Amino acid sequence: MPRSLWNGTIAFGLVRVPVKLHSATESKRIPLRERHATDGAAIEHRRICAKEDREIPYSEIVKGFEVSSGSFVVLSKEEIAAADGSGAHVVEIEHFVNGEQIDPVYYERAYYLSPGKFGDESYRMLHAALKRSGRVGIGRFVFHNKAHLVAVRALEDVIAMHTMRFADEIVPESEFEIVTPQKDPSKLEVDTAQLLVSQLDSSFEPDAYNDTYREAVMQLIERKARGEAIEAPESQQVAPTGDLLSALRASLEQHDGARRPGADGSPDGSHSSGRVVGKRSRTRGGH
Amino acid sequence: MARPLWSGSLSFGLVNVPVVLYSAVRDRSVRFNQLHEPDGSPIETRRMCAHEQREVPWEEIAKGYELDDGRWVLLSDADLDSAAPRKSHTIDIESFVEEREIDPLYLDRPYLLVAESESAARAYALLGEAMRRSGKVALGRFVLRAKEHLVSIRPRGEMLTLTTMRFHDEVRVSAEIADEIDAAATPTHEQIENAMAIIEELEVQFDPTRYRDEHRAHLERIIKRKQKGQKISVPVADESKPPAPTAPDLMGALEQSLARIRGENASKKKGKKTRTSERDADRSGSGSPRA
Q1: The pLDDT value given to residue B235
Q2: Is the CB of residue A157 less than 8 Å from the CB of residue B178?
Q3: B-chain residues within 8 Å CB-CB of A110?
Q4: Which residue has the higher pLDDT, A271 or B154?
Q5: How high is the pLDDT of residue B273?
Q6: Across A224-228, A234-238, B105-109, B278-282, which has the greatest mean pLDDT?
Q7: A267, A214: one domain
Q8: A105 and A18 inside one domain
């Protein structure tokens, strides 16, 4: 059983559901650290006072907010904590919404909830009510000194909770200079592209995708540890496709009758050679 | 405009679209700088070589992996590129799926894709249009910052957004949690019906602009007051216990909630000020009426 990160209560109306919070995810990133390329030594991050040019112990460091260039307002830990609110361990549900209305960009981190002490019955009730109504609870809670907007929803067997991004944290499209094509795609091009979309139509099976890069990097590390030289990959500059329609038609023919992509995905470095079997060929790359 | 995080090619069949990737989110939390207390001057973080005791420029920083025997293997960016040269520069679209099939548990970070040039813009527009018409989202893979990502790409407004996703082994199995739930503590049909009635009464359209980051706003107010030289009163830490569990009287809490919410909704419709009836509070029993 994973350790809980937080114990508290889900509140909706006058109903209180005691819950425990667990992370629903874990990163499988290869742990890489900064090292000095010339001698392989560790890199230390040191805090240096810009004025005195000497290292400063942690006890002499305070937090300042830059109100204008070079001018800071210093806040104590307690003053910063004053913004945290009551510190009550409650997820206050304000509304319920149809989950399909939530743009995926708002979802941040995912957690699972389990029942807290004496909470099994009310937990199961909330789970059943969310599941049957298909609704998602929107609420707030304070976690790690930060107020979070959260979405509470039923999975098949448990309740999940997501922290959500606030609307002003989403970069508006208007901030980008959108390059518009001189000529819009023709109807024939769109139709052909749509054909290709339906040819690649599939259902999402998370198990079908494995992180092959992680394995490739681990093999690379082993080779380097044995002292093998690693060839630099060839440049991977790709020119935009000129004749869209013929590229689309060629794609349709290529995929026609061919093995469905998925599982291992397209092999690195080559589009046509099918599955990459050898271990070495994958790390060598480039072809 | 933000800086691009990656540039490469979005590949769809044999169609290649040169694109640049931007973050679709920005951190709005209040940023503090570290200052040296006696003189108030900013603290700089310097990268120092532990062996040579000198500052190390960026170009001399490599990534290191520690082997079991304590030795370190150094990897340059080119080494990492060579582990998957195509994936490091190309987002290969592998399939198209229904958006609702992707459980939000898999979603990680959102990005925006922008066509790199005018000649790329046409193929970019074409892919967006084909997805809009078929109502599907694309699944693909690429390597960003020394990590392979499963990604979903969907049209949003005039642009394509890319969301990195977690691999299945990065999402924990919920069965471990489900096993903890007491199977004997079965809620009654009536309790579930009442909970659903509350959900219905509190249902709204999802409007993200309705929710403000109050914590951030509060912190900004504190900074303003401090800047004017005002004193900040620090509240005494509220180490209060979590509210008592409602297990003894779940039904009572449900009924009172419903009566109260329905009362509020009715008076809202009449345009009157919302008031909680005293009768509700009297009957609250173990459910603390804090909402």
Answers
A1: 63
A2: yes
A3: 104-105, 107, 171
A4: B154
A5: 45
A6: B105-109
A7: yes
A8: yes
Asked whether residue A161 is domain-assigned, the answer is yes
Same domain, residue pair A218 and A108? no
Looking at the structure, tell me whether residues A204 and A124 fall in a common domain. no
- Closest approach of A88 to chain B, Cα-based (Å): 7
Domain that includes residue A116, residue range: 6-27+83-167
Check CB contact under 8 Å for A268 and B44. Answer: no
Question: What is the count of residue pairs from A and B with beta carbons less than 8 Å apart?
Answer: 640
Q: Is the domain of A193 the same as that of A156?
A: no
Chosen from B131, B142, B213, B264 to mutate, greatest number of chain A CBs within 10 A = B213
pLDDT of A67 above 90: no
- Residue in B114, B147, B261 nearest the CB of A176: B114
Whether residues A67 and B50 touch (CB distance < 8 A) is answered with: no
Inside any domain, residue A48: no
Q: Is the pLDDT of residue A258 over 70?
A: no
Q: Give the closest-approach CA distance of A129 to chain B in angstroms.
A: 5
Looking at the complex, report in whole angstroms how far the Cα of residue A16 sits from the nearest Cα belonging to chain B.
Answer: 6
Q: How far is B273 from chain A (nearest CA, A)?
A: 18
State how far the Cα of A120 lies from the Cα of A209, in Å rounded to an integer: 35
Residue B285 has pLDDT above 70, yes or no: no
Q: Do B110 and A98 touch (CB under 8 A)?
A: no
Same domain, A197 and A274: yes
Could you tell me if A227 and A265 lie in one domain? yes
Q: Can you tell me the mean pLDDT for B203-222?
A: 90
pLDDT, residue B240, reads 54
Question: What's the whole-number mean pLDDT along residues A95-103?
Answer: 94
Total number of domains in chain A: 2
> Do the domain assignments include residue A63?
no
Give per-residue pLDDT as tens, A226-237: 988 877 777 666
Give contacts of A54 with chain B, Cβ < 8 Å: none
Global pTM exceeds 0.95: no
Residue B3 pLDDT? 84
Per-residue pLDDT tens for B123-150?
A: 999 999 999 999 999 999 999 988 899 9
Question: Is A200 found in the same domain as A151?
Answer: no
Q: For position A269, what pLDDT does the model report? A: 38
Whether B34 sits inside 8 A of A47 (CB atoms) is yes
Q: What is the CATH number of the domain that holds A110?
A: 2.40.290.10
Would you say residue A177 lies in a domain?
Answer: no
Does the pLDDT of residue B118 top 50, yes or no? Answer: yes
